[in-house]
Amino acid sequence: MTMREALSQTNPMAAPEDAPCKWSRSPLDYATVLEFQLEELKQEGRYRYFLENARCAGAFPYTQARTPSGEAKITVWCSNDYLGMGQHPKVRAAMHEAIERVGAGSGGTRNISGTTHYHVALEAELADLHGKEAALVFSSAFVANEAALSTLAQLLPGCVILSDEKNHASMIAGIRNGRGAKIIFRHNDLADLEQKLASLPLRTPKIIAFESVYSMDGNMAPIGAICDLAHRYNALTYLDEVHAVGLYGPRGGGIAERDGVMGRVDIINGTLAKGFGVMGGYIAASRTICDAVRSFAPGFIFTTSLSPVIVAGALASIRHLKASNAEREAHRDRVAAVKQRLAHAALPVIAGPSHIVPVLVSDPVRCKALSDTLLNAHGIYVQPINYPTVPKGTERLRITPAPQHTDAMVDTLVVALEQSWRSVPV
Question: Which of 82, 283, 347, 426 has the highest CB neighbour count under 10 A?
Answer without folding.
Answer: 283
